[in-house]
Amino acid sequence: MLFVGDDWAEDHHDVEIVDESGRTLARRRFPEGLVGITRLHGLIAEFVPEPSGGEVLTEVVVGIETERGPWAAALVAAGYRVFAINPLSSARYRERHSTSGAKSDAGDAHILAEIVRLDRAHHRQVAGDSALVEAVKLTARTHQSLIWDRTRQVLRLRSALRESFPAALKAYGELDAADTLQLLRLAPDPDQAARLTKRQVLAALARAKRRNPEVVADQIMAVLRADELRQATPVQAAFAAIVTAQVEVIATLNDQIDTLGEVVADHFGRHPDAELITSLPGLGVILAARVLGEFGDDPSRYVDAKARKAYAGTAPITRASGIKKVVMARYARNKRLGDALQQWAFCSMRGSAGAKAYYKELRGRKIGHQAALRQLANRWVGILHGCLKTGQPYNETLAWNHHTTAAA
């Protein structure tokens, strides 16, 4: 076996190759890109003996502090066993073997090689996911990031309105809604809002397809035309400019979220497991894409449901010392996957009587709302694993019969 430590930077990679005894065979620095990866393959080939009887006897194990990007993908595609080492793990390993505090790129490459040589069983190998699921993960993550960005911008808009135009918070509903953004474009300050006509308000409500537009328009105008405190004219004008800028940012994010959502749905719809995954209650196309993208589709990645639950972060951890034993939530986890699973657990109670009964059972044991959702999500991860393993769509009776029977 050959063990390769790859300490990557933006424009280069420091590489060290060691054998099974820990003897250093080579140290090199390669540029990022095709030229660099070609030279790395050539260097590794120098230490791989000629195949005997058509069979390659040498296994190459690589340790690197990332699993993303074309370089990491090229390592996996070459047939190497690639381990994505958490930077915190490599830092702790460095402290374990050196007290001087010295650090270098070449030294980090050596540490990574030693980790995969001695402790690879305690680290996660990069999964061999399909290119399609990688596309699903990338688009779903970016889609979620845009939603989080929009939330930040909405909070900034709310803050500006609270200081300059509090009546808008009373008059309008959601600040990222199409009608709200249109009315704030027309009137970003209280003086202009008081001069809005009913026709303008009705036009904005009609474009957003609001119910009872006449009644809603009258309510909005009554709030906007009521007497309120005002900022000084220059300050009000400054806030109006801020509101206008925030409105345009949110409107752009709305458009891009919708556009990227279509791309997510397109990639997810082409995956062979798409129909099976969406058969589970609470999983729409976007949420299902997030779950699939974060779990991946490598069939050998999770040996059982317990392993999938551990990766998801829904399985609790136990801290025991002496006579003290505490069961806690797992906070070191994939936060994007955890967010998706929490949403899934909440939404599933509308479409699954078993999930709702299980949640009520947990709440009846004085378990808090978020903790109950985590346990429900943990249950759903196990059910998902079973569906994927057997290739069978979701069956409510098989999944929850014991809970619905107990509830009845």
DSSP helical segment count: 18
Overall shape: it is globular
Order of helices and strands: EEEHEHEHHHHHHHHHHHHEEHHHH
Low-confidence stretches: none
**Oligomer category:** single chain
Mean pLDDT: 88
Strand-residue proportion: 5-15%
According to DSSP, the number of beta strands is 7
Output the structural class: alpha/beta
Our Rg estimate from Cα atoms comes to: 28 Å
Strand arrangement across the biggest beta sheet: 3-2-1-4-5
What is this structure's SSE topology?
Blueprint: E1 2-8, E2 12-18, E3 24-31, H1 34-46, E4 60-64, H2 70-77, E5 81-84, H3 87-97, H4 105-118, H5 131-164, H6 166-171, H7 178-186, H8 190-194, H9 198-207, H10 213-224, H11 233-269, H12 274-277, H13 285-295, H14 305-312, E6 317-321, E7 324-328, H15 335-348, H16 353-364, H17 369-390, H18 396-407
Parallel strand pairs: 1-4, 4-5
Antiparallel strand pairs: 1-2, 2-3, 6-7
Helix pairs in contact: 5-11, 5-13, 7-9, 7-11, 9-10, 11-13, 13-15, 14-17, 15-17, 16-17, 16-18
Brief overview:
With 408 residues, the protein is α/β, with parallel strands linked by helices.
Task: Provide structural commentary.
With 408 residues, this protein is α/β, with parallel strands linked by helices. It folds into three domains: 2-126, Ribonuclease H-like superfamily/Ribonuclease H (Nucleotidyltransferase, domain 5), CATH 3.30.420; 134-266; 275-407, no CATH class. It is 59% helix and 10% strand. A hairpin with a 2-residue loop joins strand 6 (317-321) and strand 7. The model has no long low-confidence stretch (mean pLDDT 88).
